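User: Hey, my collaborator sent me this sequence without any context and asked if I could get a structure. I don't really work with proteins. Can you help?
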Amino acid sequence: MRLLDDVALERSSVVANNAMNRQRRLTGSNGYGRDLGIDVAEVIRGRLAAGAESFRWLDLCCGSGKALLECAESVGDDRLRITGVDLVDAFAAGPRRGVEFVTASALTWEPGERFDLITCVHGLHYLGDKLKALAAVASWLTEDGLFVANLDLAAILPAGDRPLDRRLRTALRSQGFDYDGRRKRIGRRGAATVTLPFTYLGADDKAGPNYTGQPAVHSYYR
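Assistant: No problem. I've predicted the 3D structure and written it out in structure-token form, which is a compact way to encode the shape of the chain:
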């Protein structure tokens, strides 16, 4: 099997041209609420109503960013700041009240601040070193910040014959992550320095469709 490093992987048509989030909205049958299991706008409104000085939301692999623009308009509060990061510069047009878009790899981009909410809707499926991304996200949260993302642990595989699934679940849980295998969601509350006992070897962009029906990427570790 030919494994790609993350630089080569990001040039793959499966990754650079994936369509998972290009037109995704904030609500509805194809919305963030359905995929993440939270009402993003209500989470933000609740924190601001409680007297927070500001609220910072980071959305990784944001696609066109339509959902982010909708959220900013819906909340309508200047204390809200939203950052969307995507590998492809195909962001939606429209008023960007408190919203910034960044064209960058989710694995190499480094923020200059911490976030009260970090989301990644179906974006981890296309990353090579998925565990590196999880560790980075944990360090970007505020003390009580929330992280929610879609993740299929079946896409994180061992290089040899020794099964990885049980060890991986145990390691993630020990580092403060919650994983819902039925809904394919991972999350955590609060910042931490995360260390996971696995070494990334590379990724396979020929893995084929995952549970979403879209081609995805398998990541290999030892």
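In plain terms: The helical segments are 6-9, 13-16, 32-36, 40-49, 66-75, 130-140, 165-174. You can pass these tokens on to your collaborator as they are.
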